[in-house]
Amino acid sequence: MTTFKHIDVTQTKSRLAHDNIVVVDIRDENSFAQAHIPGSRHLDNGSLSSFLAEVDFATPIVVTCYHGISSQQAAAYIAEQGFDEVYSMDGGFTLWQSTFPEDVSSVKV
């Protein structure tokens, strides 16, 4: 059975700088638009099937939510789809934003 691992915000930032990883944010669309990790993709039920079809199963995936709780279920689901390396980011976007306030993007409307 494929499962996910945990990753902290510092490890995520390092991997973003040095590795080919994809960060997906499962928070609601409005929260994602207001602020998110630069380069992250918003993932919801409507975009899940296209995400699964587009991303290579060998690509590491980091799932983030508000506080690192809901991302665990989403990470488990993504891992079950066949991805080799899936993480749930501990502390979620809330911890990312407080730890790295300079590394937060918003969607320009």
Summary tags:
single chain; 109 residues; alpha/beta; Oxidized Rhodanese, domain 1; 5-stranded parallel β-sheet; 5 helices; 39% helix
Topology diagram in text:
Blueprint: E1 5-7, H1 9-18, E2 22-25, H2 29-34, E3 41-42, H3 48-54, E4 61-64, H4 70-80, E5 86-89, H5 92-99
Parallel strand pairs: 1-5, 2-3, 2-4, 4-5
Please provide a brief summary of the model.
The protein has 109 residues and is of the alpha/beta class.
How would you sum up this structure, described in words?
With 109 residues, the protein is an alpha/beta fold. It has a single domain, classed as 3-Layer(aba) Sandwich (Oxidized Rhodanese, domain 1), CATH 3.40.250. The chain contains five helices and five strands, in the order βαβαβαβαβα. Strands 1-5-4-2-3 form a five-stranded parallel beta sheet. The termini are far apart.
